[in-house]
Design a protein that fits this description.
The protein is mainly alpha-helical and about 220 residues long. It has one domain. It is about 80% helix and about 0% strand. The two termini are about 20 Å apart. The relative contact order is 0.13.
Length: about 220
């Protein structure tokens, strides 16, 4: 493993994607600010904007940093350099994940702070937010896996659409669940067993998708 090559490739892609990352981070933080405005309509609009920013960041970064290299033949040039498939895979998958996590963490961290400091915020809504953001992270990891396996923009978009449909069903399930639906009505932060079980399932899906993505990538005979 060539750690220097991995670092160079990682920093190169991180630098090239700095403006999109900054844009999505600012868009996410702006969405969080909208949720703090008075009125239910503002909160709903901010909520939709956060989901939109997260989905847009995921598909954009996968397309620009991963799928784009196979289309414009950039990957062919990179693989002609003295680096191994393992080096390339570690750098590429890591930078796509990190680039997505920057706005993702920014939004979740901001919302977490707001739930404890905003006068009208209820701290017990935090478990709901964690469930939602982990679900979106899981959807992104499945898109990343699809992009690596198929190298197809079309199939990646199919998984994106299916993820959006599943997200709506997931939100419906959360709102209709007798325990979870009461979280935003409580004044005390609590983590019911059903919430922890869903978090565990989401974590397993995320880890499995990332491991399978990396395993499939390094087992390929070539990427050219």
């Amino acid at each position: 493993m060539n750690t220097q090559a991995i670092q160079i490739l990682f920093l190169k892609d991180l630098f090239l994607s700095r403006w999109p990352m900054f844009g999505y981070l600012m868009g996410g933080l702006l969405s969080v600010m909208v949720t703090c405005l008075p009125g239910e309509s503002a909160g709903f609009i901010g909520f939709i904007l956060m989901i939109t920013v997260t989905i847009a960041a995921g598909i954009h970064l996968i397309g620009a940093l991963l799928l784009g290299e196979s289309i414009d033949m950039t990957r062919t040039f990179i693989m002609s350099l003295p680096i191994s498939l393992l080096d390339y895979s570690l750098a590429k998958i890591s930078v796509v994940l990190v680039a997505f996590l920057i706005p993702w963490i920014g939004m979740l961290a901001s919302l977490t702070i707001i739930t404890f400091v905003a006068p009208e915020a209820k701290p017990d809504i935090l478990p709901f937010l964690v469930l939602l953001f982990l679900f979106m992270l899981g959807g992104f990891c499945l898109q990343l896996f699809t992009a690596v396996v198929t190298e197809s923009v079309g199939w990646t978009i199919v998984v994106l659409v299916l993820g959006n449909v599943t997200l709506n069903l997931f939100l419906k399930m959360l709102y209709e669940h007798p325990v979870i639906s009461k979280l935003n009505k409580s004044e005390v932060l609590s983590w019911p067993p059903v919430v922890l079980q869903i978090i565990a399932i989401e974590a397993i899906v995320i880890l499995a998708a990332l491991v399978l993505t990396f395993v499939f990538q390094i087992r390929r005979k070539d990427l050219v």
